[in-house]
Amino acid sequence: MILDAKIPAGPLAEKWGKHKFNLKLVNPANKRKYDVIVVGTGLAGASAAASLAELGYNVKAFCFQDSPRRAHSIAAQGGINAAKNYRNDGDSVYRLFYDTIKGGDYRAREGNVYRLAEVSVNIIDQCVAQGVPFAREYGGLLDTRSFGGAQVSRTFYARGQTGQQLLLGAYSALNRQIHLGKVKMYTRTEMLDVVVADGKAQGIITRNLKSGAIETHTGHAVLLCTGGYGNVFYLSTNAMGCNVTAAWRAHKRGAFFANPCYTQIHPTCIPVSGDHQSKLTLMSESLRNDGRVWAPKTVEVAQKLRKGELKVTDLKEEDRDYFLERKYPSFGNLVPRDVASRNAKEAVDEGKGVGASGVAVFLDFADAIARLGEDEVRARYGNLFDMYAQITDENPYKTPMRIYPAVHYTMGGLWVDYNLQTTIPGLYCLGEANFSDHGANRLGASALMQGLSDGYFVIPYTLGDYLATIGPKPVDASNPAFAKTKQDVEERIAKLLSLRGTKTVDEYHRELGLIMWEYCGMARTAEGLTKAKGLIHALKEDFWKNAIVLGVNEEFNSSLEKAGRVADFIELGELMVDDALMRSESCGGHFRVESQTEEGEALRDDDNFAFVAAWEYAGENQPEVLNKEALVYENVKLTQRSYK
Amino acid sequence: MSGNMNLTLKVWRQPNSETPGKLVTYKAESISPDMSFLEMLDVVNESLIHKGEDPIHFDHDCREGICGMCSLYINGQPHGPKRAITTCQLHMRSFHDGQTITIEPWRASAFPVVKDLATDRSAFDRIQQAGGYVSVNTGGVPDANEIAIPKVIADEAFNSATCIGCGACVAACKNASAMLFVSAKISQFALLPQGQPERYRRAQSMVAQMDEEGFGSCTNTGACEAECPKEISLVNIGRMNNDYLSAKLFRQEEIAHHQE
Questions:
Q1: Of A359, A385, A443, B52, whose CB count within 10 A is highest?
Q2: Of A220, A201, A226, A185, which is closest to residue A464 (Cα–Cα)?
Q3: pLDDT score recorded for residue B1
Q4: Domain A480-630 carries which CATH code?
Q5: Does A137 touch chain B (CB under 8 A)?
Q6: Measured between alpha carbons, how far is B235 from B222 in angstroms, rounded to an integer?
Q7: Which chain B residues have a beta carbon less than 8 Å from that of A393?
Q8: CATH 1.10.1060.10 region(s) of chain B?
Q9: Of A566, A580, A578, nearest to A616 (Cα)?
């Protein structure tokens, strides 16, 4: 299949404007004849559902949580980028575009990224108009701060709870439409399959998590806004419920899965404390505005620290190695996430790690407290410091935080064209669930931007083009595809419920996570990936023989819910490993040990890998087919990324 | 760090909202003080599953103290014994070896039990849907810096906006009143210029919906504020009462005039 990304021709700055004009429109009187399904109600889903309902479409929105306000977008801490140039520090749409392309290690599409930078300006206006309480300066105007990978201050924030405030803004817009009757909201409902009838997405099959009812919903189009799949690693910064099921089932119905191996490892998380751990907690990247990252200069000092023979606060300046400031003088502690993560791992691998496990480095605020005073530091980061103290039982105002990289965000996802449509006509994918805007590494404060850009400012235009083409006639629910897909879902549930083995689903999940982290995590080799492939395959076979799934379908059944999700994660894990094995270059968050510069930085291979890898499902236990979308750069010159 | 603990749990088990529930005793063994309270329940559940028993059902999601999904009434307190945190941020080092811990769901008729420790808090969503928003469509809004907002006002609006909608305020209140939650939302918009045009109508419709959902009245005991994981202030309730009363006493036009 030839992948047509439908990027409009012409100069970068005119693409989106021209495209909007060329898209077909649906007349206002016809909009109410269309039903649109939105799965997931985080930033992308809630903003899309609200905006489409405002236009006049009938929207059915679905989430697995008890309320749309719980979507994991709520946990984003640091901020949202926008090229407002309120600071007069040289920011522009083009600079945000450029930083994002470079930050993504030249593996994102120019057209999409430019559009993202262009609408970023509108997002801030929209959110402020909704009553989102962004941080302000004493003059009453909006405050900004800096984030990794940028030398301008373009990140708008609401203390350390930006995601929460933006989500509550989108949630309130959604609530307004629910009140007006334009959105029908289904909570505690999980999508288990997409119905493809006559080659087009025309509905979904869901399970009511309370009653177990398997239901069919029809729609003229289906939007998947279901977030990322970082929980394939078991331990990640994602919420416990985050999963790949909706996207994976769509993949098995014909939607290509792009760049699955691109995983973002976030450099500043609270380190793992033991085997019981269920998830990891992020410490916002914004902390690196004032926190300094360091490790002991020598292995001997690190050992003494670990044994408690030396106190960290007693350590002399010359015994500390501020490795980011030393190696990257112009970006310092604000290098992008992949660079900061790799350097922390390197320090630990050299034996210079700290903490009881030895798998951590320091994030130190002593200088900031001396410079600004404890009160100012508390005003800037108080809630994050409290959270750290709660989890670790240490006071970060007195001793430096211990941090280590952890799985955070997935840049891969369903392949979409410029209109956000997948390879299944009528099936769209928005936000983290698609692959399109971040390349091989996501810069901080860009995830919120993409979710809201897709939901508020892209899909309201591009969806109309498709709907105008298919016409407003009602969806035919008697098409046999509906009954067949529902039956497939019921059979799968019955099969899961028949598993009465000896190992819990969580045990499988943890095992999968260990394999993924070890072999497909921060550094990857052909040898390790090949080994992982075998291990995951064996795990999958064992799961379907030996897992324990208790209870019945007709009740609130968490073991059944988890079983379905973990089964999908195992299959995704196999694909991630295949993708990582195929891509023998290093780029962004994907570090292939075989491909590095003399200084140990990621070494791209543009001649052979400047493409999007879009995988096509070929049937049960068949190798997936690789389709390539060439990445064409007309405006930026591909160079070795440097933050020195 | 102290050693691992053995605990006795008395857990509320209830298959669904129609069936009566009861407290069931379980042993939680070899619990590390570094575990979160929910991780301790995970460990207990894994052992129940191995025995073929139905795991204890509880609501949880982000486990970072922000999504508001986790609940749990622990030894008679919403979100357990520590101040200003959610259950997912409560760690087992707050308990001691040999302790008995009683775990119950939120108790309020407006929050019916769904299963075991999980309750249905959709009443909060319906209150928000009744008017907890600024009516603005996507696009066509003014530049974000067009309206300056004094920092102290923006900060105060933010303090109200930090509510995570967990329902601890309702669970803590002897009358199961939702006033702290509702007033936090009303306050956020009442403080900001964007919220002014609908300010009094919003207060009326949200309060009306709150009453309809069956929440009790406020008697200014302050248990809500004391148990709120985000330390939402009682001041919000005063602000809400003020707006509600203004809406009752004056006609809309007069209010608009009064504001000019």
A1: A443
A2: A220
A3: 46
A4: 1.20.58.100
A5: yes
A6: 11
A7: 34, 91, 93
A8: 121-247
A9: A578
Residue A592 appears among annotated catalytic residues: no
Q: Which helix (H) or strand (E) holds A184?
A: strand A183-186
Give the HSE-up count for residue A509: Cα atoms under 13 Å, Cβ half-sphere.
28
Averaged pLDDT of chain A: 96
| pLDDT tens digits for range A291-309 | 999 999 999 999 999 999 9
Q: What is the CATH architecture assignment of A30-265+409-470?
A: 3-Layer(bba) Sandwich (3.50)
CA distances A237 to A77, A437, A598, B8, Å, are 12, 21, 32, 31
The three-class DSSP label of residue B209 is helix
Strand A200-208 and strand A189-197: the pairing is: antiparallel
In terms of Cβ atoms closer than 10 Å to its own Cβ (0-12, 13-18, 19+), residue A502 is: exposed
For residues A607-637, one letter each, b for 16 or more C-beta atoms within 10 angstroms of the residue's C-beta and e for the rest, the string is eebbbbbbbbbeeeeeebeebebebeeeeee
The token duo for A3 is: 């992948």
Under an 8 A CB cutoff, do A66 and B59 touch? yes
Report the distance separating Cα A46 and Cα A162, nearest Å: 16
- Taking the CA of residue A189 and the nearest CA in chain B, the distance in Å comes to 14
Chain B hits for A124, Cβ within 8 Å: 144
Task: Show me where the domains of chain A are located.
Answer: 30-265+409-470, 267-406, 480-630
Tens-place pLDDT, residues B203-257:
999 999 999 999 999 999 999 999 999 999 999 999 999 999 999 887 665 555 5
Q: So what's the ipTM on this one?
A: 0.96
**Exposed, middle or buried: residue A109 (CB in 10 Å: 0-12, 13-18, 19+)?**
buried
**Domain A267-406, architecture per CATH:** Alpha-Beta Complex (3.90)
Q: DSSP string covering A195-241, please?
A: EEETTEEEEEEEEETTT--EEEEE-SEEEE-----GGGGSSSSS-TT
Average of per-residue pLDDT across A236-247: 97
The mean pLDDT of chain B is: 95
Burial tier of B58 (Cβ tally within 10 Å: 0-12, 13-18, 19+): buried
pTM summary value: 0.97
CATH of domain B121-247: 1.10.1060.10
A130 contacts B195? CB cut-off 8 A: no
- Nearest C-alpha neighbor of A410 from the set A253, A564, A560, A247: A247
CATH number attached to the domain at B5-104: 3.10.20.30
Give A625's strand partners: A616
Query: Does B2 reach chain A within 8 Å, measured CB to CB?
Result: no
Residue extent(s) of CATH 3.10.20.30 domains in chain B:
5-104
The angle, 0 to 180 degrees and rounded to 10, between the axes of the packed helices A505-520 and A526-546 is 170
**Cα–Cα distance for residue pair A584/A526, rounded to 1 Å:** 8
Q: Which two tokens stand for residue A475?
A: 């969806």
Q: Note whether B163 and B232 are within 8 A (CB).
A: yes
Q: 3-state DSSP call for residue A640? A: coil
pLDDT in tens, B11-40: 999 999 999 999 999 999 999 999 999 999
**How far separated are the first and last CA of chain B, in Å rounded?**
61
* Cβ separation B125–A159 shorter than 8 A: no
How many C-beta neighbours within 10 Å does residue A474 have?
10
Cβ(B59)–Cβ(A561) under 8 Å?
no
Token pair in block for residue A62:
């679905």
